[in-house]
Write a structure and sequence with these properties.
It is a single chain. The protein is α+β, with helices and mostly antiparallel strands. It has 2 domains: about 50 residues, no CATH class; about 30 residues, no CATH class. A 3-stranded antiparallel β-sheet has the order 1-2-3. The radius of gyration is 15 Å and the shape is globular. It starts with 6 loop residues before the first helix and ends in a 27-residue tail after the last helix.
C-alpha cells in the first residue's frame, strides 16, 4: 500500500463517490494516483479520461515521488514482455514490482 504525503492527499486519492463509479465522471474527484507508475494527476472533467500530472502536493507542498513509468516499461522489456501484446504479470499491475525480490536496481 502506498503512503501519500499528507492526510488530504490520501483522502483525495482514496475518494469514493456514492453517485459515480468512475472518478473521471465525478466532479468531486480531484486527484488520481497510478500505483504502478507512482504518478499523481489532476482529473480533467471534460468527459474523457485525461489527467494533468503533478509533481508537488497541492495541499502540503511536498515533492511527490518521481514517475516510474519509463522504468516500468524497461523492466517489462528486460523480461521480454510487450505490454501492448502480452499478458502483464500481476505484480506489474500495481506497485508490487517496485519492491519485488527480482527488482534489484
Amino acid at each position: 500500500m502506498t503512503h501519500h504525503c499528507c492526510e488530504e492527499m490520501t483522502s483525495q486519492v482514496n475518494w469514493h463517490c456514492d453517485q459515480h463509479d468512475d472518478p473521471f465522471s465525478c466532479p468531486d474527484a480531484l486527484v488520481g494516483f497510478t500505483a504502478k507508475f507512482q504518478e499523481y494527476g489532476l482529473f480533467i472533467h471534460d468527459g474523457g479520461t485525461s489527467r494533468i500530472g503533478i509533481v508537488f502536493c497541492p495541499w502540503c507542498g511536498q515533492r511527490l515521488p518521481e514517475s516510474q513509468r519509463d522504468r516500468w516499461f524497461e523492466e517489462l522489456e528486460s523480461r521480454g514482455i510487450d505490454p501492448w501484446e502480452d499478458e502483464v504479470p500481476a505484480e506489474f499491475q500495481d506497485d508490487r514490482w517496485l519492491t519485488s525480490p527480482q527488482e534489484k536496481r
